[in-house]
Amino acid sequence: MSSFTDKWRKMWAKRSGLFPMSADEQLDYVNGLREPENDFERSIMQYKCQMALCKKRTVFLLNLAAAVVLPFHALAARIASLFKRVGSEPVSAVYLKDLPLTYVQDSVKRKHPDLIQVSPGAGRYYGKNEARFVRGLIRKCRYPYLVYKTFVKLLSYGWTVKKYAPERIIVSNEFSFTSSALTAYCEGLGVSHTDVMHGEKILNMRDSFFRFTECYVWHEHYRTLFLKLRAFPDQFVIEMPEALRMDVGAAEDKTVDYTYYLGAETERELSVIRDVLDRLKDAGSSVAVRPHPRYSDAVSVKKLFEGFTVEDGSLPVNESVKRTAFPISKYSTVLLQAALNGNPIVIDDISDPELIANLKSADYIGFEIEHRLLSELIRNYSEKEQ
User: Fold this and answer.
1) Whole-angstrom Cα distance, residue 23 to residue 214?
2) What CATH number has the domain spanning 2-244?
3) Residue 18 in this model has a pLDDT that exceeds 80
4) What superfamily would CATH give domain 251-385?
């Protein structure tokens, strides 16, 4: 499956991977675009940034296909909506995302105790308001693919508004070039359009120019990052959600000196990690390894790290962090959670130096909060041995 995905990305993307362009190249492109005057132009600028990462033939084919499909899809959706009965179930807020409600900040939940979660594919409706909005977007935008993507999302928004009549629609879509246009749609109906952050962010121009009524981020670092990408400045609220909070324990709870949280490492990287952890273990430290639930081959990890404590899914990740004095990883949500909750962390800058250099240039938050480097730890142990 991963091989198919890689081939698909290579076919369509000009540059793929975690770092499609250098940070400087991305910022030069973002800053070379003019200042948007409204939400429609913000969507256009974000669209341009994302299409700059694709091959020209990809952009051409996407727009050609969208130009052909949009009229027929819009007509079919309009006719279907004329005969569709959408029951009324008013609530004050809807989280329109297939993610746990724990990603929605507590302050939002207190304002909306009747908040519900709805899958984006739960229903579709394309009424007069939605059709009028799309026609207006067509007049302002010469990119059929942008219009079509906005139209598709609008079907879900239209159904949500008609069924629930919410005061607020909550999403996690700062990466979508449709978001600013959809903010204009929502606010035109008197509905707040709120974004809640749901995953780690580094500098990537796909997250540029966006505007929501409010955008909740986990840390001041992310507000600064998005401003660098020219997102609308007066939208940010800094608040950590329940999904990121964890009890990292007190000093007396720490029974393991170091736990390495694996990701999608190559065999070579795993071998390097094994050698480094051996040195920590030889220096008298207690060391554990936790395979990634999706990317790690648990059997291979157990074999390679024989002699170490290898955790499994029976130990919850929050309990793993709670018992660990210093979590180690390169680029991990666990590392971020530990740091944001006050647990010191160690960044592995040994097993993949190129990745670490790229993360630094891309404003990875790990380097902005309290941390130690694995190379420093090894150097300190080596000096003590001499």
Assistant:
1) 26
2) 3.40.50
3) no
4) Glycogen Phosphorylase B; (3.40.50.2000)
